[in-house]
Amino acid sequence: MAQSAAASRKVTTGPAKVSQIDVSAFIDAAGVAAGLSAIAEADSAGGSSDAARAKVLAYLRDVVRDARARVEEAFREDRAGLDCARRLATVQDVLIERIHDFALRHVFPSSNLSSGERMAIVAVGGYGRGTLAPGSDIDLLFLLPYKQTALGEQVVEYLLYLLWDLGFKVGHASRTVDECIKLATADMTIRTSILERWLIVGDEMLFRELGERFQREVVEGTSEAFIAAKLAERAARHAKLGNTRYLVEPNVKEGKGGLRDLNTLFWIAKYHYRVTTPETLAELGVISRRELRLFQKAEDFLWAVRCHLHFATGKAEERLSFDLQPEIAGRLGYNAHPGLKDVERFMKHYFLIAKDVGDLTRILCAALEEQHAKAAPGIAGIRNLVRNLRGRAKKIPGTIDFHIDNNRINVSSPTVFRDDPVNLIRVFRLAASNSLEYHPDTLKLIRRSLRLINGELRENPEANSLFLDVLTDRTNPEFHLRRMNEAGVLGRFIPDFGKIVAMMQFNMYHHFTVDEHLLRSIGVLSLIERGELAGEHPMSTELVGTIKDRRALYVALLLHDIAKGRPEDHSVAGARISRRLCPRLGLDERETDLVAWLVEDHLVMSMTAQQRDISDRKTILDFAERVRTIDRLNLLMILTVCDIRAVGPGVWNGWKGQLLRTLYFETEPTLTGGFTRSTRAERLDASRRRLAERLDEWAEAEREAYLDLHYPNYFLTTPLEEQVRHAAFIREALAGEPLSIRVRTDAFQGITEIMVLAPDHPRLLSMLAGACAGAGANIADAQVFTMSDGRALDVLVLNREFAEDADELRRGERISGHIRNLLQGRDSRRRLISGQKAKRPPKAFSIPASVRIDNDLSNQFTVVEVEGLDRPGLLSDLSRAMADLNLDIRSAHISTYGEKVVDVFYVTDLLGTKITSESRTERIVDWLAHVFENPGSEPMTAGVLPTEKVYGLDRP
Questions:
Q1: If you count Cβ atoms within 10 Å of the first and of the last residue's Cβ in the chain, which end, N or C, has fewer?
Q2: Are 796 and 756 in contact (CB under 8 A)?
Q3: Does residue 472 sit in the same domain as residue 575?
Q4: Same domain as 438, residue 529
């Protein structure tokens, strides 16, 4: 007869703690059995009719709903993630057991089962660990003694269909013990699934037979292969998901540092050490009691996050996306602190847990490696021993505390750090200077010695000198700083850095945590310095060889965002930290002042290049006043490139690079008193000449006429390759229609580009932006070039929507159709936008609109800067509103930073003068703020907006 779920706990291989779960608090097993029996007794067919099945289904739906509601309520009260997962698994056990018993007693009544009809229903995989999330798959193994019988097939089918109808996702297999052993031997996935098994109901002897044969015929002697397979699988999974644990929208289950990593860690330990609980690993001395607590804390926290994700969304959602992070933070009880939102505190805790998971993996791997080296028998063992001895025989010149172990630095004694705490920094310097990896034993001992990093060590001149050597290493400083950070040394040695370890910035612009961003920026600088990015950053590569303050540049990159998360401006606070820290690191007064300036002004160059009109002389003069010297300009240029590159994939592009180079070349003469590598006129002449050389197939007269179409700013701010593309496009359009449009995709940058050539018009940009909004497209950048023949070349850069180029091109053609219809008067902007459901950033983001008008930034124009939450149609609404306000847009600079947009317009009134009237300025600010917050607002004054049909492109 069927074994009870309570008894099955005695033969499980899962965690012992599950037996402590009080099932009756969430589901009344006896009551469910009685309810099902009552349905059978009321049925004329004894429970086997279709009507009885319908009643069983309706009854069990209520049971499942009530049980899950109780589990969720208890979870909200105690916030115990692992207990929640175990409660859900226990509820599932009871449900499956009762359905199985009902099927045998009432649907397919059978008083005495033959030996061939014995069956064990076994939970495997995640369910086999005795844990389930609300949306987890239910993985079942129907274990048979021989081939499937008719009765067994009927029971299995009845159970599965009921579970499916109840809304569960069930993975299942019906196999004999022989088949399980055979498949587990050949397939590592099946082997892992059977490794964690749980008898829900059925024949205990059959279950035990599987366990004994699995251990004897599959596990015995295969630890090395299993460990290698699991670690390779883990590496492939990490590579697929970005290969970093510091993504700001992490996958809680599959991501680096997530639950799957913790599971893999325990699978390996369970397989190799034959343990059933993490507690046993501590008893065996594989991990310390502190590390056991880390494991338990990480497991409980990750389960809490995952269960909340499933409960909050009502589905198996594993990605901790921006729109869900605030809700999960609230469910877990996080509060805001000065400088940090509640969601940022929650995510910092998440990333610290993910880091702990990585530490535990390294610790276990070290223990496994050491045991394998000691235990390897026979000829293979001798070969391994010889190889290991060769590797371990190498000494490191100048030290007896460390040696080289298979190209990894290892400690020579367990007391090396206690004997001399400076070794906690020296070990990284030795590894860097000798290009060594770190032995897991070394990293484990470092973590266990962190308490030795105190005020005395932080002020030690030798320790600081060694740290500066690591930071400025000529080979790979990022790698060694990353190891230092993962080991916990960097945050202890520089406490201000420790405050931003694992800190996320709750926005869609920054892809990584603050500490990860800083380390990546140093990595970019190292690549530039070694010439490995010369193709992408030729100017920075050239400049880096001329700088005199290499140490200051590396220190500034390490510190430029170190004050994130504080109530005050992080640049100002970071400069203050720099002035305090740099002397400790050994920098002199001049270097300290330079680092503080770089940190305080590290955003100035990128903001000026992207948000200001760099063809305006006042922009250049103001920027030069901030920079003061050519040496500081060189340093700021390199730092800016590294900073932007380290923000995340796709943030850097050629357009930003060209803007920075143009700003540099425009500023250089001012700083050098007129002496420069090339004057503006020379650069303009050189740019025209380069384009002419690329257009060598054109007739000379045609080529000269084309070059005269563009104003100087076009040649100075547009990359050559783009100029060539524009030329081909405009040439084709010269003899054609007055309106020409071309669509191009760029999968690498994740954008779609639309080029539009049309007669210039005050409302042109508004209509183009409206056409994009009508198709649900979001404009990431816009370049507007007025030509001398009265036409305008507008280049719109759109965020990509589809993975395939063919789909993206079709979307581009649809937008092109909207543009034609708008400009030729066959459609209206208002109808297009109203018919499109806006795709906004996640609701979690809220940025109040801000409008600022400045007459000091330019001598000729009034600068209108609008900042707030990005949305489709925004640029169209703003440019139309400016036309309503009788403003003439001379240049527009569109910058998006994730969910945030900063649109800057250089404008005049219709007479070409600045806006100086205070009342008119207030009117502009009020109306633009209103338009920002109210998409599709009507014109400010009736009759101001001219009909969109006057554009006249359809007239001969």
A1: C
A2: yes
A3: yes
A4: yes
Domain that holds residue 188: 5-220
Give 411-420's long-range contacts (Cβ < 8 A, gap of 24+). Answer: 411/439, 411/441, 411/442, 411/445, 414/445, 416/445, 417/445, 417/446, 417/449, 417/452, 418/449, 418/452
Alpha-carbon span 827 to 847, nearest angstrom: 32
Q: Is residue 408 part of a domain?
A: no
How wide is the angle at C-alpha 131 spanned by C-alphas 128 and 136, nearest 5°?
Answer: 90
* Cα–Cα dist 611/781, whole Å: 11
At residue 485, the 3 state secondary structure works out as: helix
Of 220, 240, 271, the last residue of a domain is 220
- Nearest Cα neighbor of 289 from 448, 449, 497, 452 is 448
CATH assignment at residue 172: 3.30.460.10
759/756 Cα distance (integer angstroms): 10
Q: What angle do CA 432, 435, 438 make, to 5 degrees?
A: 80
pTM: 0.76
| % of the chain surpassing 70 pLDDT | 88
DSSP assignment of 565-602 equals TSSS-HHHHHHHHHHHHHHHHT--HHHHHHHHHHHHTT
* Domain-embedded: residue 160: yes
CB atoms within 10 A of CB 634: 23
pLDDT interval class at 709 (50, 70, 90): very high
> pLDDT tens digits, residue range 838-864?
455 556 667 888 999 999 998 888 999
Backbone angles phi, psi at 646, to 5 degrees: -85, 0
Examine residue 710 and state whether it is found in any structural domain, yes or no: no
Residue carrying structure tokens 């250049």: 620
Note whether 356 and 300 are same-domain residues. yes
